[in-house]
Specification:
By secondary structure, the chain is an alpha+beta fold. It has a single domain (2-10, 19-107), classed as Dimeric alpha+beta barrel (Alpha-Beta Plaits, 2-Layer Sandwich). The protein is built from two helices and six strands. The chain has a four-stranded antiparallel beta sheet. It has a two-stranded antiparallel sheet with strand order 3-4. The longest helix is centred in the N-terminal third of the chain and has 16 residues, at 18-33. The protein is flat, with a radius of gyration of 16 Å. It starts with a strand and ends in a 7-residue tail after the last strand. The relative contact order is 0.33. The mean pLDDT is 90.
Length: 114
């Protein structure tokens, strides 16, 4: 099963430390080697982004930064796991390094084999 993990980080006012970068790099390398992590990327601050909404046929675009920090996506990971519980354990390991925030995981639809 594949899962999308969406990390909603608290926006930081300080840069990431070299130690934090090294720890995250080591985790990513380990999870990629195990075949658990299929892809991952971090997002730039919300000040560089925008939100677009379609409402009653009209598009509404709101440039960042976004005031609701709990709604700001900090990055994503595409995971391979045998169960939701296994995916949750991988996300908990990630969050121990990433720090405060929230992850939402969603199992991805996989079409049945023909």
């Amino acid at each position: 099963m594949r899962f999308l993990s969406i990390y909603k980080a608290k926006e930081r006012n300080t840069p990431v430390t070299p130690e934090e970068t090294a720890a995250m790099g080591a985790l990513i390398e380990e999870m990629m080697k195990k075949g658990v992590l299929l892809g991952t990327e971090g997002c730039l601050p919300s000040a560089k982004g925008a939100r677009i909404r379609l409402e009653n046929g009209a598009f509404i675009v709101k440039d960042g930064p976004f005031t609701e920090s709990k709604e700001v996506v900090g990055g994503f990971a595409l995971l391979q796991a045998n169960s939701k519980e296994e995916a949750l354990e991988h996300v908990k390991t990630f969050m121990k390094i990433a720090g405060d925030g929230e992850c939402e995981i969603r199992q991805l639809y996989e079409a049945p084999a023909r």
